[in-house]
Write a structure and sequence with these properties.
single chain, 71 residues, alpha+beta, four-stranded antiparallel β-sheet, 2 helices
């Protein structure tokens, strides 16, 4: 297992966390997603997966979830 941490902007509430978690969980091999919401700042996303997840994969998932971007 591999854990990667990313920072993302645009998350403001529990709904945002749910949308981001759902899209990142859909990435092949992802077994767990934890989001530490920082309103008005860069939220911390920890992704646990069978193989390392790339920033490009997370950026695509964030885009799919809404108006969120890697910080």
């Amino acid at each position: 297992m591999s854990a990667n941490t990313f920072s993302a902007t645009g998350l403001t509430c529990g709904h945002c966390v749910g949308a981001v978690t759902e899209e990142i969980t859909a990435i092949d091999g992802v077994s767990d997603v934890q989001v530490e919401l920082v309103k008005g700042g860069a939220s911390i996303i920890t992704v646990t997966a069978a193989q390392p997840v790339t920033a490009a994969q997370v950026a695509a998932a964030l885009d799919e979830a809404g108006n969120y971007q890697l910080a």
